[in-house]
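Worked Example 4.2. Read the sequence first, then its structure tokens.
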Amino acid sequence: MRIDSFIAENAIKNPHQIALEEGKNTISYDCLDEEIKRIASPMMEFGNCRFAVLAEPGIQYIEMLMAVYKSDNIAIPLPIELAMFSLERILDTANINNIIVTDAQYSRLSEAFFDRFGTVIIVSEDNSVNILRKEVIKENNNPHLRLVLYTSGTTGTPKGVMLSDRNMVANAESIINILGISPADKAAMVISPHHAYGNSIINSHLVAGGSICLGSMNFMGSVFSMMESGISMFYGVPSTYRLLLRYPEKFRDAFTNIRLAATAGGAIDATIVENLKNSNPDVRVMPMYGQTEATARLAYLPSEDVDEFVDTIGKAIPGVTLDVFDSGGRSVEPDNRGELVARGDNIMLGYLDDEFATEKKIINGWMYTGDLAQKLPNGYFRLLGRKDDIIKIGDHRVNPRELEKYIKDNNDVSGVFVVPVSHELLGNAISLMVMPGSGTDVDSIFSFCRENLPGYLCPLEVLCIDQLPLSENGKISNRSIIEGYQNVKNSM
């Protein structure tokens, strides 16, 4: 089944149930199903063709996405928060002839942007559909392909992750299982729906027949109001919770009736967990781990183990098998290190138009995540950093995440970020960016490093920063850390 088919089923079983909310606007399952059919109508004669979807986050975006599914075509969402050159890189890579776009986004971009498309379908604010031009060209796509999500668009070569109906439904059903999502649940989603995590939230709640309240983190007041509107489940990345917890009293008042706080998109620390539980002792905190290539999620940490094992990603979600392999592709014993691998029905079909990258990512049925990990005796997994993030300094290979943790745990700072910088003799050296605590002293950090680290790990400089080095997706990565460092240096 496709995701839109579950919406149609829910429209029959529970037609007046609210499916989506956005501000003061709501739409029931029966009305949502009708809008999807209407928007899908001009795309029906294509069949298995690629359609870019360009729409601002909200109810209309979900309607348009599901309409592409309903018409038996392939959706390629374009995140509107990306810069123009990033969007164009995706389009140049994806070979897309067709686009469905909101009137607002069509007006925002130049006509020249749309000249590349043979088909342009514009959806107005009232959901009326205008076919600007239409060119039906037969395409030779994977017959199982339904959705393409791009993992990168700012630097490097963007990769289109190919997902099937089976991928999306399998992952949605696993998430429904571990979170206990029911039609009675109303979820708050304040992260981008264009990316894997947001897409997973949409799928799981619409399959379960629940409700989704759509918003953003642009205005804190509206987020707190949303949380107080009958929300039972709240989703965010770690930075989402950090921002909200800057207003402890408002957060505590709004968080009172939320039964589950889920997080993904990066490691959550013990301080956030403690603050969440202090705000609502009855809340279940559920950290999750995943990748776009796995239709979002691979592992979860059961809420009852969050306090003891918050430094792990927990165990595989239902339907997924996780393991740790050495460099020879052999499973390692507990406590040994290697690369985290996964297999299951949620693992992608491959990368769009890139067989070479696909063959490097999926080997003998296992997807290689690129994350270094350790398998614990209890079956949980601990991440040790990205394989690609390893820094070579002279003859030494350094895991920046381990170094960051060691420095943070032994100094009065709220965050530490290791930055690889060029060095004439060693090839690379490191600088540090730190988010200061109440008693941070840069000289003390230098002294600690000199006394406790080998010379090649002593930082060339320590820079204080006042915000997290986040990527456009709200994540912290080696790339975002380097970009953050360059921004700081350019402003000095």
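Now turn to a second chain, presented in exactly the same format:
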Amino acid sequence: MFRTYADAEIQFGEAFGLDCHLWRFIEHGLHQPWFYVTVAKITEDGKYRDMLMLSDVFSLEGLVLSRDELVEVEEVQLVSPGYFNKSGSWLMEPLLSISRGKFVSGDCYYIYRVSGGVCYISSGTGCISDRIKSSEILVFEGGDD
């Protein structure tokens, strides 16, 4: 989840439309992975790229499932805290795929595959590396490594 504050809003009037708000900064208070997504929008004038910051797997899955021929997810970066990636600091890594699986208990876990052959496994309680008991379902798949 990202938080915004009124004093961080940039006032541009209606230059970007009535429903658009611009921010000098946003805050991410949860020490959980999130996604930096490059989306290409195809128009008559060419291809334009926007970057989205998605706070959870469900948002990424929704974006991937809802896209049409005029919107293309070009790249997804996994942004993860140090405890999750075992580096001690936040990392931003190209995401190759996310798979979803289930424990014997029925709870879900996710496997994040990033460039360099690294995999991170997480559940709702944080990063895990064992207790995996059933098959995976692909949630997202990007480019080749």
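Notes for the reader: The longest helix spans residues 57-66. Helices lie at 57-66, 82-85.
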